[in-house]
Amino acid sequence: MAETLALPIIDLSGYLESNSPEDKARVITEVRDAAAQYGFFQVKGHGVPLHLQQEFTTAMNNLFNLPQEEKDSLSFLKNPCRRGYEAAGDSHREGDKLTDAKECFFIGGEDPVVSYSGFHGPNVWPSSLPDSDFRGPAWGYYEKTKELGKQIWSLLLEGLGRPGTLVDAFAKKPVVVMKMIRYPPSETTRPGQFGIGAHTDFGGVTVLYQQPGKDGLEVWHEGREEWIDVPALEDVYVINCGDMIQRWSNGAYKSARHRVINKAKGPRLSCATFWHGDVDATDPINPDSGDTATVGQLTVKRFKTQYSIHKEAQAQVGLA
Ligand SMILES: O=C(O)CCC(=O)C(=O)O
Ligand SMILES: [Fe+2]
User: Fold this and answer.
1) For position 101, what pLDDT does the model report?
2) Can you tell me the mean pLDDT for 6-31?
3) Which helix (H) or strand (E) holds 205?
4) What is the mean pLDDT of residues 76-104?
5) pLDDT of amino acid 116
6) Ligand 1 pocket by C-beta < 6 Å: which residues?
7) Which domain, by its residues, includes 265?
8) Beta carbons of 103 and 85 less than 8 angstroms apart
9) Ligand 1 centroid to 260 CA: how many Å?
């Protein structure tokens, strides 16, 4: 029997904390090779404090345990910035028979004014939860994973022989969307229904937290044509590249299909921080390639296949 595939676990401290060029070069190579082979890898030594992850997990529970009525009143479908609550059944992947079983809550950068078809704007926060029970830990966690997403972008750039600092020109006011997720126990889902159906991520770098011990994520390995289980380990993040990175790296980095089937007892929590870049930024890897597609255009194009985006919003990024 062929040996079981497993994603590598890369220690980022050699890049983030060390001054040694050898340490940095080793991490850059490990990340490059994993992104090329799997499009996915796991990381430790990432700089997000464990206590923050734990407080944030409690905060996600506080949110998802609110009465259904209150969660529905915060629906992202009514919000111009797609912030707020996505109920089970609100999203459906092309090709799947059934809708996703998960429920989610979206936040992004905090901006008093809605602009760029809702890429920028204010968040919605549940009024019945004191800040210390949700908003505080969620925001603290958002800022930390936002920082990590940018570091991963730099690493990926360096892996292709580019200066890591190229990311600064790409990220003056980057779009970073965070999606908290709760999957119901598998006994309560319908036959053939996924927690989240197979998909690739739309954008740039995804920084994914899995509640420790709550396995469920599977990544498709094209060469072997098999699903790789990704164990949910404490203090270990899953990192993956989205479609924009695959496009701009000319396929050097993969955007791999993945899905979730909750294998844990009880519900499973996770959280994906999607680090995209500036709305009107173009290819940071090969700035002279002539590819004029912007972050805003590429992400809205993909959203359209999953949620309805009104015409005005499409026009604002130059699509309609
Ligand atoms: O919950 C997970 O482990 C994965 C979530 C995911 O793939 C996504 O939100 O795009
Ligand atoms: Fe995903």
Assistant:
1) 86
2) 97
3) strand 205-210
4) 86
5) 86
6) 179, 181, 196, 201, 208, 210, 217, 258, 260, 270, 272
7) 9-280
8) yes
9) 7
User: In Å, how far from its chain's centre is CA 277?
Assistant: 13
In-domain check, residue 155: yes
Position 49 confidence tier, pLDDT thresholds 50, 70, 90: very high
Reading phi first (left if > 0) and then psi (alpha if -120 to 50, else beta), residue 235 is in left
Q: Report pTM.
A: 0.94
The residues near 119 (Cβ < 8 Å, ≥ 6 apart) are 81, 108, 175, 279, 296, 317
- Residue 27 belongs to a domain with what CATH number? 2.60.120.330
Tell me the per-residue pLDDT of 97-132, one tens digit each, with 9 for 90 and over.
788 889 999 999 999 999 988 899 999 999 999 999
| CA 181 to ligand 1 centroid distance, Å | 8
Q: List the structure tokens of 74.
A: 């915060």
Residue to probe by mutation, ligand 1, list 230, 260, 261, most atoms within 8 Å of CB: 260
Measured in angstroms, how far is the CA atom of residue 200 from the centroid of ligand 2?
6
Q: How many domains does the chain have?
A: 1
Q: Could you tell which of 177, 196, 243 is best to mutate to test the pocket of ligand 1, judged by most ligand atoms within 8 Å of the CB?
A: 196
Q: Is residue 289 in some structural domain?
A: no
Interatomic CA distance for residues 147 and 224, integer angstroms: 34
Res. 307: pLDDT tops 80? no
Measured in Å, residue 219 CA sits from the centre of ligand 2 at 10
Higher-confidence position of 148 and 302: 148
The ligand that comes nearest to the alpha carbon of residue 179 is 1
Q: Is 315 among the domain residues? A: no
Residue 206 CA to ligand 2 center (angstroms) comes to 8
